[in-house]
């Protein structure tokens, strides 16, 4: 799933290539992906892309004051094309293509743009055409951005105070902190040397300070690694920079212990026992149920 660093990089990528260009059309293939009807998606045609920004994990293209807001969900991605003039007409079907944005041709006759694709059978990619990004429910309910200057250790202390949620779940909750998903929450907790099952309200001031530092540094480092990369290279860059996520069975780069995994109904987390849980493996609840 694209998280804050990847969406930030996609926003930068599109600023360089789309801002100042005129939208020729937005073709929606997966009808269920379009979550709004007023203004219609056709209203984007003829408008100029004036800015590209990020709200948590939402990508926002400002087109003369009308906003195309994109949420790539778990399996969505953005695929840039230098020339879509010869692309086949889009037709609803079972393929991965969800939508296509075509920009007007340049002086050389090239018509660049991008395609939004989504793998798998669970189609959650979402498109919104709105006058204000705050009209998108997911944007309106976002918690603070962890890379904002206002996200201080004291701000994090107020967030965790009295919260009986496990810290792993709290970090992934977009209404609490915007932009962190399954992968970077694993990375943050490993950097903070903290168990993913630790209850948020039990954190000491020192642990909160360590967690805040881990959040900011982990995300900033990931953003810097992704800066300037083409959209097609971002997935590989993210994978190469991960220390624990999706590395179950491999040695920890810090201590050499074997990275372990806890599975859930539709996801999993990875952690290092030595670095995070005092050497004790966490109970895998799904496996425990299977053994009963």
TrEMBL record:
Q: Reply yes or no: does the keyword Lyase apply.
A: yes
Q: Which reaction does it catalyse?
A: Hydrolysis of DNA containing ring-opened 7-methylguanine residues, releasing 2,6-diamino-4-hydroxy-5-(N-methyl)formamidopyrimidine
Q: Which Gene3D superfamilies match?
A: 1.10.8.50, MutM-like, N-terminal
Pfam families per the UniProt record, alphabetical? Fapy_DNA_glyco (PF01149), H2TH (PF06831), zf-FPG_IleRS (PF06827)
Needs which cofactor?
Answer: Zn(2+)
Enzyme Commission number, as recorded: 3.2.2.23, 4.2.99.18
Q: Which InterPro entries does this chain map to?
A: FPG_cat, FPG_N, H2TH_FPG, Ribosomal_uS13-like_H2TH, Znf_DNA_glyclase/AP_lyase, Znf_FPG/IleRS
Keywords linked to the UniProt accession: DNA damage, DNA repair, DNA-binding, Glycosidase, Hydrolase, Lyase, Metal-binding, Multifunctional enzyme, Zinc, Zinc-finger
State any single GO MF term: class I DNA-(apurinic or apyrimidinic site) endonuclease activity
Q: Which residues form the Formamidopyrimidine-DNA glycosylase catalytic domain?
A: 2-93
Question: Where does the FPG-type domain lie?
Answer: 243-277
Q: Which family does it belong to?
A: Belongs to the FPG family.
What's the protein called, per UniProt? Formamidopyrimidine-DNA glycosylase
């Amino acid at each position: 799933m694209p998280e804050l660093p990847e969406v930030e990089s996609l926003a930068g990528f599109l600023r360089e290539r789309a801002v100042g260009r005129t939208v020729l059309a937005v073709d929606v293939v997966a009808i269920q992906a379009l979550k709004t009807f007023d203004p219609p998606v056709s209203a984007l045609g003829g408008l100029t892309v004036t800015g590209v920004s990020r709200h948590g994990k939402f990508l926002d293209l400002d087109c003369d004051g009308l906003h195309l807001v994109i949420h790539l969900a778990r399996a969505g991605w953005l695929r840039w094309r230098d020339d879509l003039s010869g692309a086949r007409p889009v037709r609803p079907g079972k393929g991965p293509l969800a939508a296509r944005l075509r920009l007007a041709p340049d002086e050389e006759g090239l018509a660049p743009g991008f395609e939004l694709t989504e793998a798998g059978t669970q189609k959650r990619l979402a498109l919104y055409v709105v006058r204000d990004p705050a009209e998108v429910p997911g944007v309106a309910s976002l918690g603070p951005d962890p890379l904002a200057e206002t996200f201080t250790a004291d701000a994090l202390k107020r967030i965790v105070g009295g919260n009986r949620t496990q810290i792993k779940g709290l970090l992934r909750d977009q209404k609490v902190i915007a932009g962190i998903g399954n992968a970077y929450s694993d990375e943050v907790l490993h950097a903070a040397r903290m168990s993913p099952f630790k209850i948020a309200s039990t954190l000491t001031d020192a642990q909160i300070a360590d967690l805040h530092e881990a959040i900011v540094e982990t995300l900033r480092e990931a953003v810097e690694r992704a800066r300037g990369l083409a959209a097609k290279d971002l997935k590989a860059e993210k994978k190469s920079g991960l220390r624990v996520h999706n590395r179950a069975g491999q040695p920890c780069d810090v201590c050499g212990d074997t990275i372990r995994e806890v599975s859930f109904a539709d996801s999993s987390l990875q952690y290092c026992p030595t670095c995070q849980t005092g050497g004790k493996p966490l109970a895998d609840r799904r496996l425990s149920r299977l053994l009963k």
